[in-house]
Write a structure and sequence with these properties.
The protein is an alpha/beta fold and about 950 residues long. About 55% of the residues lie in helices and about 5% in strands. α1 runs antiparallel to α2, α15 packs across α18 and α23 runs parallel beside α25.
C-alpha cells in the first residue's frame, strides 16, 4: 500500500460507478496516481513548472530558500548556457536566441533557423537562474536538447517546428482575441522553447472545461482553477497537483505519435545529461534540483530517474554553425508565440507582483538589471549566508491530493479597494482615449464585476471579470479611437511590458553602430521614434554618421531607419539630412545583423556577393548590386568584381525579361562613370560590347516571341541605340544590328510599330513613309479596332527613338480628326487603357510634346495650322530624311531667315569653325538668301549632296 493507495481506490470506485466498464477509465485514473507517486519517489528532486506561471515562480522562490540546492538542472537548450550571464545587462522580458543562416545537415528550405526562449521575471526558471548566478557555489546546468537537435529530430518531409503550414509563422492554439501592436513580431518566425506547456490535447476536454468553468479561453480557466488555488499552497501540494495535471494532459494527448516520440526523446536526453553530470561532479543527488515542465515530470520512459542504467545514444550535432544572442521580447510576443490569450502574461505578472507583496517573499534578481541593484545585493548576501550547509530535505511524502481534489478552492475575499482602484483607473484611461465615461460608469463597472463573479461561482472578481464588465459598461458598440476597452484593461493590468538588451550584451556589430551614431546625441535604446537632424555642411564630422545611416537603411526594415530629408544617389551628396530612427524599437533586427558580420559594411558586402552569385541571379540583379556598392561601400575593387559578374550573367541569359531594368541601370551607371575623372571602367566597356552583340542576336526572336512583351523589345532597342557609339568604338559592327532588324518579322501590331521605328532610326524608313503607313491603317476599317496597339508600339518606341514624339502626336491628332464618332467613342476606352497599361511611363513625354505643338490659347486655335500639314511639310518634308530633328526642323520660313541673320550679325562662332576647317572668310560676302525663295532649294541641295555635311560632322 503506497502513500496514494487510498486515492487510487477512490478513483477506481468512481470509474466503476460512472463508466460503462472500469477498465479504460480506471487505467487512466490509476495511471495518474502512479505518475505522481513515481515522480515524488525519485531521489533527485523534481520541480514541475508551468511557463510564466506566478504560482510556479512563488513556489520556486520558497523552495530555493528552503533547500538551497548546490546544482540546478534546468530544462533549457544546453547550448544557450553562455547567454545566461548576459541577462544582467538586460531589462526583462528578453529572449535567448540561437540563429543559423548557413545550414549544413538540415534542409535548406528551412533556413534561416531561429530558436528563442523567452524569460520574464514572473517565471520559475528566471528565479532559478538568478539564484544560481548570484549565489556562490551554486552550479546551473542546462540539460535539454541543443538547438541543433530541435531541428535535427524534426522529420525532413515536414515544415520545421512551429511552422506547420510552412508559412514561416508559428501555429498558435487559437485561443482568445489576437494580440495587439507591432510587439507581437519581436520573435519573428523563431521556434519557441517553452517549459511546461500545460494545455490539454483533446479538444473535447478543453471545451468541457471551458463550458463548465464559465470562462472564455484556456488562460482564464488556468488562472481561475490552477493559479489562484496554488498561489498560496504549500510546496508538497503544489508538486503533487502539478505532476497530476501534467500526467492528465500527457495521457489525454491526441495520437500524434511523432510528437510524443520527440517529447520522450527529450526526456531521455535530459536524464542522460543529468546522470553524466552526477557521475562527473560527484555531487549528492539530494543537493540537486531538476526544474522541468509538469508534462515531463510525469515521464514514463525507461531512462527516467537518476538511478536508471538504461543507456540512450545522443546523436552528434550537424555541421550547422549556430550563433547566439539576446533579443528583446514582450508580453504580447510571448502570447503570440505560444498561442496564449491576449493580456494573459501581463495578468500573470500582475498576479505575481501582488502575491509577492502579500506574502513578503523576497524574490531573486540578477545584479545589474534596471531598478534591481540594491535588491539583488541583499538577495545575494542572504543566499550566501545560508548556502554553507545542506538545506532541509523534503518531508516524508504524504497524500495532499485527496484533500485538494475533494474541497473547492479557497479564494481570497473581495478586495473592494483594489476593485475600486481598477474601476476609477479604467474610466480615466477611457476618457483619455475618447470615450464618454463618467463616475457613473465606474460605479456600474464595480457592481457588474461583482455580479459576473457571482454568476461564475467566484468569491472575488478576477481581472477577466473586470474586463468583461468594463467592456459592457463603457464600450457599448462604439470605439472612438484605435484602442478598445479590453486593450485599455490590459494596459491597466500592467500593459505589454517590452524588454531591452543592454549595451554590454549586444553583439559587436550593434555596439559598433551605437558608437558610430553617438555624435548624433540621441538615446538609441529608447523605443520611441527619434528625429535626427544632420547639418553636414556645418558639421562635416557627421558625414560618417550619414553614411552609416544609409547602410542601415539598406539592411534594416524600412520603418527602422527612415530618411525624411536628403537622398543618396550616384554622383550626389546631401548637405543636410533628417532621419526618423527607431533602432531601440527594432533592436532585434539590429542584433540579428550581428550574426552575419562584425560591421554593417561587411554584412552588406556579404549580402551583395551572395545576391549576385545566387543560382537565380540575373544581369539586372548584378547591376543593382553594383549601384548599391557605389552608393554605400565605396570599394572600387569589389564594385569591379560585381560588374564583371554582371557581364557574365548578361552573356548567359536566354531571355530579355529584365531588359527594361538593365537599360535603366546601365544608363545611370554610364552617366555616373563618365562624370568621374577615371572614366569608364573595363567592366562597363565589356558590358556594352557584350550587350550589343547579345541583344542583336536575340532581337529577331524577341520580335516574334509571344511571351516577350513590347516593353522588353523597346528596352532592347533602347540599349542598342544608346550604347551604339560605345559598342562601335569597342569594335562592334553596325551591320549586325541592321541584319537583326532586317530579319525581324513580327505579327503583333505593337511590335510592328516598334519595327517601323527601328527602321526609321536606322535610316531605311523615312518619316513620309511612316505617315503613309499610319494613314493606311486609319483608312482600313478592319485595322481601326487594333490601332491602339499600334499606338502603344509607337509610344514604346519613344524609349529607343525619342525623335518620334512629334510623329506620335501627329498620329494621335490624325486619328481624332479622321475617325467618326461612331468609331472613335467605342475605340477611345481601349486606347486609354492600352496606353496606361503598356506605355504609361511614355505618356508624360507625349503630353509635353503636345504642349509644344498645339497653341496655348483657345483664340489661336482657329488660325492654327498643324506643322505636318503646312507648306513646309508639303515641300519635300524636311524631317523625312533627318531623324532626330524633332520640332526644330519645322521652325518655318521666318525661323530660317532669323537664323541666317543671327549668324551674319555675330560671326565669331562661324569664324572659329572656318579657321578649324582651314577656310578664309569669303562666306561673309555671300548674301543671305531670302527665306521664302531659297529655303526649299537649300534643303533639296543638302539632301541631294550630303557629303559636305558628313565630312563636317566627321571633322567636328
Amino acid at each position: 500500500m503506497t502513500v496514494f493507495g487510498a486515492l487510487r481506490e477512490q478513483l477506481q470506485d468512481a470509474a466503476v460507478a460512472f463508466a460503462d466498464g472500469p477498465d479504460a477509465l480506471a487505467e487512466i485514473l490509476a495511471g495518474l496516481v502512479d505518475d505522481v507517486d513515481r515522480a515524488l519517489g525519485e531521489e533527485l528532486e523534481i520541480f514541475p513548472v508551468c511557463h510564466h506561471s506566478p504560482s510556479s515562480a512563488l513556489a520556486m522562490v520558497r523552495r530555493l530558500r528552503e533547500k538551497q540546492p548546490k546544482v540546478i538542472y534546468l530544462e533549457l537548450c544546453e547550448d544557450l548556457q553562455p547567454l545566461l550571464t548576459e541577462l544582467r545587462n538586460c531589462q526583462l522580458p528578453v529572449a535567448l536566441q540561437a540563429f543559423a543562416s548557413e545550414l549544413d545537415g538540415h534542409p535548406r528550405k528551412w533556413g534561416p533557423l531561429s530558436v528563442v526562449a523567452p524569460v520574464t521575471e514572473a517565471s520559475a526558471e528566471y528565479q532559478a537562474i538568478a539564484y544560481a548566478l548570484e549565489t556562490p557555489g551554486v552550479e546551473l546546468v542546462l540539460v535539454d536538447r541543443s538547438t541543433d537537435h530541435v531541428f535535427q529530430w524534426q522529420p525532413r518531409d515536414e515544415p520545421p517546428p512551429g511552422d506547420a503550414d510552412g508559412d514561416g509563422d508559428p501555429e498558435p492554439h487559437g485561443e482568445g482575441p489576437p494580440a495587439h501592436g507591432e510587439e507581437v513580431d519581436l520573435h519573428g518566425d523563431a521556434v519557441g522553447i517553452e517549459i511546461g506547456d500545460l494545455r490539454p490535447g483533446f479538444r473535447e476536454l478543453e471545451e468541457h472545461l471551458l463550458h463548465h468553468g464559465r470562462v472564455r479561453h484556456w488562460s482564464e480557466w488556468w488562472d481561475q482553477y490552477v493559479e489562484q488555488p496554488l498561489v498560496n499552497a504549500d510546496y508538497a501540494t503544489y508538486r503533487q497537483v502539478m505532476v497530476l495535471i501534467g500526467s492528465l494532459f500527457r495521457r489525454l494527448r491526441p495520437g500524434d505519435a511523432a510528437r510524443l516520440d520527440r517529447d520522450e526523446d527529450r526526456e531521455r536526453y535530459m536524464w542522460t545529461r543529468m546522470r553524466e553530470h552526477l557521475a562527473v561532479s560527484g555531487v549528492d543527488r539530494s543537493d540537486c534540483l531538476y526544474v522541468c515542465g509538469a508534462f515531463h515530470a510525469a515521464s514514463r520512459v525507461e531512462q527516467f530517474g537518476s538511478a536508471s542504467t538504461v543507456p540512450f545514444e545522443i546523436t552528434p550535432r550537424t555541421g550547422t554553425t549556430w550563433l547566439y544572442g539576446l533579443v528583446p521580447s514582450s508580453h504580447s510576443a510571448i502570447e503570440a508565440q505560444f498561442g496564449l490569450a491576449s493580456g494573459s502574461v501581463s495578468i500573470a505578472a500582475t498576479t505575481f507582483s501582488r502575491a509577492v507583496t502579500r506574502s513578503g517573499v523576497k524574490t531573486f534578481r540578477l545584479a545589474g538589471q534596471q531598478d534591481g541593484g540594491k535588491r539583488a545585493t541583499r538577495t545575494r548576501k542572504a543566499a550566501a549566508r545560508g548556502s554553507g550547509g545542506r538545506g532541509p530535505a523534503l518531508p516524508a511524502a504524504e497524500d495532499r491530493l485527496s484533500e485538494f481534489l475533494s474541497r473547492p478552492p479557497v479564494a481570497d475575499g473581495l478586495d473592494e479597494d483594489e476593485l475600486l482602484g481598477w474601476c476609477v483607473d479604467i474610466v480615466r484611461l477611457a476618457r483619455r482615449n475618447g470615450y464618454l465615461a463618467s463616475t457613473a460608469d465606474a460605479i456600474a463597472i464595480f457592481e457588474t464585476s461583482i455580479l459576473l463573479a457571482g454568476m461564475r461561482n467566484r468569491a472575488r472578481p478576477t481581472p477577466y471579470d473586470f474586463a468583461d464588465a468594463a467592456v459592457t459598461c463603457i464600450e457599448k458598440d462604439v470605439v472612438p479611437g484605435r484602442r478598445d476597452v479590453r486593450r485599455l484593461c490590459e494596459i491597466l493590468m500592467g500593459g505589454d511590458r517590452i524588454g531591452r538588451v543592454g549595451y554590454d550584451a549586444l553583439p559587436p556589430l550593434a555596439r559598433n553602430v551605437y558608437d558610430r551614431l553617438a555624435p548624433l546625441g540621441l538615446e538609441l535604446d529608447r523605443r520611441t521614434v527619434q528625429r535626427a537632424l544632420l547639418d553636414i555642411a556645418a558639421r562635416p564630422e557627421l558625414r560618417a554618421a550619414s553614411d552609416l545611416l544609409w547602410v542601415l537603411r539598406a539592411l534594416l526594415p524600412q520603418q527602422t531607419v527612415r530618411p525624411v530629408m536628403g537622398e543618396r544617389r550616384l554622383g550626389g551628396t546631401s548637405i543636410q539630412e533628417s532621419w526618423d530612427l527607431a533602432i531601440g524599437r527594432d533592436q532585434r533586427a539590429l542584433i540579428e545583423l550581428g550574426y552575419e558580420g562584425v560591421t554593417v559594411e561587411q554584412v552588406l558586402e556579404q549580402r551583395l556577393r551572395r545576391r549576385v552569385w545566387a543560382p537565380q541571379a540575373t544581369a539586372a540583379v548584378a547591376l543593382r548590386a553594383v549601384e548599391d556598392s557605389l552608393l554605400y561601400l565605396r570599394n572600387p575593387r569589389f564594385t569591379d568584381e560585381l560588374g564583371a559578374r554582371a557581364v557574365q550573367l548578361l552573356g548567359a541569359e536566354r531571355t530579355v525579361d529584365d531588359a527594361p531594368e538593365v537599360l535603366t541601370r546601365i544608363r545611370r551607371l554610364l552617366a555616373y562613370y563618365r562624370s568621374t575623372p577615371e572614366g569608364l571602367p573595363a567592366w562597363c566597356e565589356n558590358f556594352g560590347s557584350t550587350g550589343y552583340a547579345h541583344y542583336c542576336t536575340l532581337l529577331p526572336t524577341a520580335f516574334v516571341d509571344e511571351e516577350t512583351g513590347v516593353r522588353q523589345v523597346a528596352a532592347m532597342l533602347g540599349f542598342l541605340f544608346s550604347i551604339e557609339s560605345l559598342a562601335l568604338a569597342l569594335g562592334c559592327d553596325r551591320a549586325q544590328l541592321e541584319i537583326a532588324v532586317a530579319q525581324s518579322h513580327p505579327s503583333a501590331p505593337a511590335k510592328v510599330a516598334l519595327l517601323w521605328a527601328a527602321r526609321f532610326q536606322l535610316g531605311s524608313l523615312t518619316l513620309a513613309q511612316l505617315r503613309e503607313r499610319s494613314t493606311e491603317l486609319l483608312e482600313n476599317p478592319l485595322v481601326v479596332p487594333a490601332f491602339p496597339q499600334y499606338l502603344t508600339g509607337f509610344a514604346q518606341a519613344l524609349e529607343p527613338v525619342p525623335a518620334l514624339a512629334p510623329f506620335v502626336v501627329e498620329v494621335l491628332s490624325g486619328a481624332f480628326g479622321r475617325l467618326p464618332d461612331r468609331v472613335l467613342l467605342p475605340w477611345l476606352p481601349t486606347l486609354i487603357t492600352t496606353l496606361r497599361e503598356e506605355a504609361g511611363e511614355q505618356v508624360p513625354r507625349l503630353v509635353r510634346e503636345a504642349g509644344r505643338t498645339f497653341p496655348a490659347g483657345l483664340a489661336a486655335l482657329d488660325s492654327w495650322t498643324p506643322p505636318w500639314s503646312g507648306p513646309a511639310a508639303a515641300s519635300g518634308d524636311r524631317t523625312a530624311d533627318a531623324p532626330g530633328t524633332g520640332s526644330a526642323a519645322r521652325s518655318g520660313t521666318d525661323g530660317t531667315a532669323a537664323v541666317a541673320e543671327l549668324l551674319a550679325g555675330h560671326p565669331e562662332s562661324c569664324d572659329a569653325v572656318a579657321g578649324l576647317l582651314g577656310c578664309d572668310d569669303r562666306w561673309r560676302s555671300v548674301a543671305v538668301p531670302a527665306a521664302a525663295a531659297g529655303e526649299a532649294e537649300l534643303w533639296e541641295l543638302l539632301v541631294r549632296h550630303p557629303e559636305p555635311a558628313e565630312a563636317l560632322a566627321a571633322r567636328l
